[in-house]
Design a protein that fits this description.
single chain; transferase; Aminopeptidase; alpha+beta; 4 helices; about 30% strand; 7-stranded mixed β-sheet
């Protein structure tokens, strides 16, 4: 099992009448976000919650949630990454990166990933001209989503701090943003 959603590009199972709202994450959302993330990545819910709490207070990071009613059904983040002179030449460039998009299995294929990505791109457009993203080449759904939103491939030869992708399995993408800052 890859941890990715089954790839069904022609499927759209939006729930009739279910209103999905995206918004900045708040402290009372973090338990649900941590459970979503840990369900895919493993690890400790408490540890993940502490990291998410730190993200809420970091001006270079943004956490978004998707909610149906009061239920958090999706999460996605933005982080600022900065190259240093000590980094290898293959280090991903300085900029804002989309990270950690995850949607509850019961709510996949409802357009929630796109809503969260558009929300995070809007936040980043207030701060930068471009946004970056990396993904596993095997993750067809996310690659199609990001291509649809204007992302184009920069390279497959890159490194990123903490990136679990093995060399040759990932792709680094970038999209221009309508700059409003």
């Amino acid at each position: 099992m890859s941890g990715f959603a089954n790839y069904e590009p022609e499927t759209d199972r939006r729930a009739p009448g279910a209103e999905v709202v995206t918004r900045p994450a708040e402290e009372n959302d973090l338990d649900a976000c941590a459970r979503l993330i840990v369900s895919r990545t493993g690890g400790s819910v408490d540890g993940r919650r502490r990291r998410l709490l730190g993200d809420l207070h970091d001006p270079g990071r943004y956490s978004a949630v998707a909610c149906v009613g009061r239920e958090v059904v999706g999460y996605g983040g933005v982080i600022w990454h900065e190259m240093t002179s000590a980094d290898p030449p293959t280090m991903a460039p300085t900029g804002y990166y989309l990270v950690g998009l995850i949607v509850s299995p019961d709510w996949r294929r409802h357009g929630i990933g796109e809503l969260l990505t558009v929300d995070r791109m809007r936040w980043t457009a207030e701060r930068a001209d471009t946004i970056l993203y990396f993904a596993n080449l095997a993750n067809g759904p996310t690659l199609d989503l990001h291509k649809h939103l204007g992302f184009t491939e920069l390279t497959r030869n890159f490194t990123f701090p903490g990136n679990p992708l093995k060399p040759g399995t990932g792709v680094l993408l970038q999209a221009p943003l309508k700059n409003h800052h």
